[in-house]
Amino acid sequence: MDEQLLEVGQRISSLRKSYGYTQERLAEMADISVQFLIQIEHGRKTMKVATLRRLSAALSVSADYIINGSDRLSENEEINAILSTLSEDNRKQAVKLLAVFADAINKNV
Fold it and tell me: Residue 40 to residues 16, 55, 102, 106: CA-CA distances in angstroms?
């Protein structure tokens, strides 16, 4: 078994558990099958970049963290990771909502 795949799978599994997600929930969030997630977590399967991006967004970490074990995302990177999972139109809507939310929060301070 490839040691790097096993380490990647262990990081994903550890993060999933730290968030209290079941394999079913994380698979749903990343739009993959539960069986595929299980195979990734056990180091038996590799994944495409798109899958890695969806998993990293769902777990609020960088792809680099999943691959290499480097630090979690900063707050801005976390927001960007979440936005990157959206279509262009939905991303624009999300940015508008975030701006309205920030404005409302700032007015209440």
Answer: 12, 11, 37, 42
Confidence at residue 72, expressed as pLDDT on a 0 to 100 scale: 54
CB burial readout 25-58, b (16+ within 10 A) else e: ebbebbebeeeebebbbebeeebeeebbbbbbbb
> What is the pTM for the complete model shown?
0.65
Helix (H, G, I), strand (E, B) or coil at 56: helix
Residues lower than pLDDT 50 in the chain: none
